[in-house]
Queue: 2 jobs
Job 1
Amino acid sequence: MKEEIKNLIELQTIDLEVYKINEEMRDGLSSLDLRRKSIEDDKKIISDYQEQLESGAKRRRELEVMISDEEERIKDRQSKIMNIQTNREYQSILKEIEDTKLANKQREDELLLLIEQLEAMENKIEEIKNKCAAEEEKIKKDSTAVEHKAAKLEKKKKDIVKAREAQAAKVNKKYLKRYETLKERRSGLAVAGVAAGVCLGCNMNIPPQMFNELLREDEILSCPTCNRMMYHQPEESTEE
Ligand SMILES: [Zn+2]
């Protein structure tokens, strides 16, 4: 039984290493993906701004045309007012001039505000574009590094998988099946030591009777709480 447990622990050590390598590979790639996604988001913001910029520019042209047309009208009325005969007509044209001036003043205010907004938007677009370009350049470099690392990890994994096959062949089929099932369900940790009556897989006490059985090492027992295959871990080997 001691040999069986030893073989299982050895197998688990190898599998945990494979697990770690897989995770490392995934982390590297997913962080790149996240950064690429963030650039995509920024580009969407840029295209939104550009749409706003276009409609803003259209409004700007409209206002400029309107303002200059109305200025013409004011000039026209001002020259007309010289030749007015009746007071009523004079008052009417005067009012028209004042109203037109007021309306134009409002348009000019709108135009000024709009120009400011368009400028701010252009700056913002420029800023985001620069940020994206710098980040894209960085990602290019980093992804080469990640690919390089992934290739290294892949090679390391291949070697480990070979060792894993050899080790799995040493394990009794009956235990291997149990091990594989538990490995899936317990994120890689299928075999757990028991120290001072506590399962180190789930940190729960096991019944004293079971602990005694465990010490006899007649068969491989399962933790009543987490179901992991247990082995006795002498206390001097734990940090206490
Ligand atoms: Zn347990």
Job 2
Amino acid sequence: MIALPFVLLAVLAALAVVTIRGRAARRRELAQPGRAPSAPLEVEDFHALEARVSRERCEACQVDFKQSGEGSRVHEGRRLRVVRLVCPRCEDERELFFQVG
Ligand SMILES: [Zn+2]
């Protein structure tokens, strides 16, 4: 019979691994273009913006994100377009930053 403390330790270790992997995945995600105001996606016009937004998928669920909002934000003197997206399945939220024109 396995002692309970070892089972608890194993569970905690597994949880730690999952948490660390999640953080690393999140960092990789934020390093992609358009995920931070410091690295916006550059598009010609709003048509190109819409086309780019429609290609955005939730990697976890493999479904298309739905647009939940849109606005503008000024970052370091640049006016950016911000599109807010939400996954219809897991409700994960994402912001995409664009430099239009
Ligand atoms: Zn999802």
